[in-house]
Protein: Class I SAM-dependent methyltransferase
Amino acid sequence: MSIASETHFSAPEVYGSRAIANIARALPFVERAYASVRFSILRPKLLSVMDLMLTDEGRILDVGCGFGLFAAYFGQTQPKRSIVGIDPNARRIDMAREVAKSIGCTAHRFHVGDVRDVPLQGSFDAAYVLDVMHHIPAEDQRPVLERLRDLLVPGGMLLIKDITTEPRFGLLFTEVLDRVMVGWKEPLAYRHHQDWGAMLTSLGFKVRIVRVPDVLPYPHVVIAATKL
Ligand SMILES: C[S@@+](CC[C@H](N)C(=O)[O-])C[C@H]1O[C@@H](n2cnc3c(N)ncnc32)[C@H](O)[C@@H]1O
Structure:
């Protein structure tokens, strides 16, 4: 008997289109349109990179979870994940709860709060922060990463998807679209990926970074930081 026939690996399709369709069905019209934009920005390559980096079971923190789209996605690709989502926007948290309930992610939990001070019980096997770090004021970014480190178990993975600051045109393109979403008053504090790498290393993480090219000029980076 060959090795291949002795071992059974489940290999979900790379894009998880069934998982995304389930999420879309659970959302009202406007949020469904937003979800389709988010899933077209965080494309198959990005989602699959992140899915494989995250532990396939255990307790995972989703920082700035928004409508809970990625908690719903990562919860479907690996059903043993229990995801705790936090976001200061109460309406988004309500929606995240609805979506998780309707797709059967019953172990997921969602709390309204700011990552800087929301009360969180217990430790986490992993945490992810998808396009949120640049919404946190520059002077608070290091304390946030410090807090996330303290919430992780040793060996736990902190996964950050953000935007790097080069090429300049890519940053400008992203900033214009971010401004359309958040207006002019909110701070947007992007950093170069090497800056994030140095900060995370100094906080006691082992860091790997990949840039993920896109057809649109978003300068995406995925940072995988393992707590030592
Ligand atoms: C671009 S959206 C990304 C939402 C979600 N992570 C996703 O990928 O669809 C940024 C999110 O970060 C949240 N956010 C902003 N500042 C935050 C903070 N200090 N603590 C936690 N979440 C925050 C916003 O409310 C918003 O939902």
